[in-house]
Protein 1
Amino acid sequence: MSEPTAFPLRLPEMPLHDPFIVADAESGLYHLYTSNLDSSGTPGVGTMVYRSPNLRDWAEPVPVFLVAEEGAPWAVHGAWAPEVHRWNGRWYLFTTLHDTDAPLPVPRPGEYGTPFPVVNYRRSTVVAVADDLTGPFRMLRPAAPILPAELMTLDGTLFTGDDGRPWMVYANEWLQRIDGTVEAFPLNRTLDAVDGDPVVLFRGSDASWITRELPAGVPHQIAPYVTDGPQLHRFGDALVCLWSTYEKNRLTGGGIDGDYVQTWAASRTGRLEGPWEQREPLVRGDSGHGMLFTSFAGELLLVLHRPFTNARGKLYEMHWDGAELKVVRQRTDLDGD
């Protein structure tokens, strides 16, 4: 696919959810991936990319992955939270697909009171590969999920251990766990099958500030603890995991009601197994599902979406002081106003 020649868009004009940015030095362009919308010019479930030379001026989006072209009998809806990672000389797309016609067991209704409001169904993060950041990405395993099909695995991301071993880190849905988790499965070298037993990094309830913010009258033992959007970033010997959840959350007849937040945890050992220390949220105000990246100028930046509905991308300058991850300022100058 040819590089864009016009960059007419600004972040406030760009519908997106669960943004993921690759700063590609070879092309000199930032690639922002999100779920495919009609604005890409090609309708259908999948992934599209916006491109920019400076994080302020963006080209019209183009599709890079379309589920309908894959012939995957179970993966027909969703295409949430796309991420693109370099592995063994190629680009790999991770995105969450689901099938509403493949039901899964739900927790007992009494665990929430009555009734439990959601029907669970197959949901899993898939992996697709391409030689170029603009695709087309093709699924490694169209016939079935890579992770166990009985698990609702959301927002998978690639993590490489110190030994070079690849892992898929993902959120195991609160819909299935009640107390949602962030977990990881080791993968084989071709990223198309699990290669060992899973590891639980942490649970949503491990963040003590969530319990502190629960509304009066909601027992913490039955409150739904959402875990969304894990993304890992190394700072020397420390390992940071961004993740999102809801504060002041409560279960309603339609699902979760609360304020979406961007939070984080740190593994001082630098190991995936932790132990993980939960920290206070970085950004509130119905914001979340963020990721860290380094700009061409060497700045540490956070991109996330806000608000949860009708979302737009927001950029923040960040600082790691050796112990704490901190927001320096929101980069409203990149909104183009």
Note: The two ends are 30 Å apart (CA to CA).
Protein 2
Amino acid sequence: MSASETRHVIDGPTGPLELKHLHAEGEPRFLAVVCHPHPLHGGTMENKVVYTLSRLLSGLGGEVVRFNFRGVGKSAGEFEQGIGETQDLQAASKWLREQFPQIKPFWLAGFSFGAFVSTISAKELNAEQLISIAPAVTRFDFSQHPMPECPWTIVMGDADEVVDPKTVFEWAETLPDNARLIKMDGAGHFFHGRLVELREKLEAVLPKGD
């Protein structure tokens, strides 16, 4: 049975913040927030990779929020190079935690620019799982921020036309043991025609029970 989804506009750091809440399929066991790609290049919470991640996490028992960063959709404000957007993520996370105070485990996920925002926020938000899809390491400096200490799954296509795959693979080799890299042969940045495979690869490695 498909999980239900509701739309909300909450108070964000620069005004209204638009989000969608996808309920867990079955018994909720964790909370999750998913971050979308670059706002100035068409990124929104309706992105297909973001939607795929949200459905996956809902199926694993997550109460899942995806949201529009400032300046996107009905979210107020202007793009702030990822730093202001971490405040948007904090607001969305706070709202979700307030809805389900009894559920403590917290997961983060992000795609491209959203992977940058979620990665640099993971430690402060006490994330217990982090998922980074095609992280934009060629466009944003991850090294200037605390790196996550939780289990961290990175997925990267070797035919990515937006973020250089070789740079990501080399960067991943420098990360500590809590990070694991999944390479998808022939997959481009937006995983066209590969979303089912992306979901299956993540399902195979993410925890499915308490």
Note: The chain has one domain: 5-205.
